[in-house]
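[audit] Reproducing an earlier prediction to check determinism. Same input, same settings, fresh worker. If the tokens differ from the archived copy the diff job will pick it up downstream; this log only records the rerun itself.
[audit] input (86 residues):
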Amino acid sequence: MIRILLSTRLGERRWTQADLARATGIRPSTINDLYHEMADRVNLEHLDLICEALDCDISELIIREPNAEIRVRSRMGNPIHIRPKQ
């Protein structure tokens, strides 16, 4: 699962969503969707603007957490069995 940590980054800097929208020119509704992790798609230019405004790296804004269930399949259509990390 992909997580967007915008709410955390804004809280650390004591910025509001409106502050970020003004600084980046991104629509407030888009900022709100990212803030609440409701976005299905993310514009790369928006990510770049947000990272620039918050002086952070993309890895501080977006992370991947393992999914509870395996969602990918092999070329034969069988679930892929992933070995646990050692």
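[audit] rerun output stored. Observation attached for the diff report: The longest helix spans residues 44-54.
[audit] end
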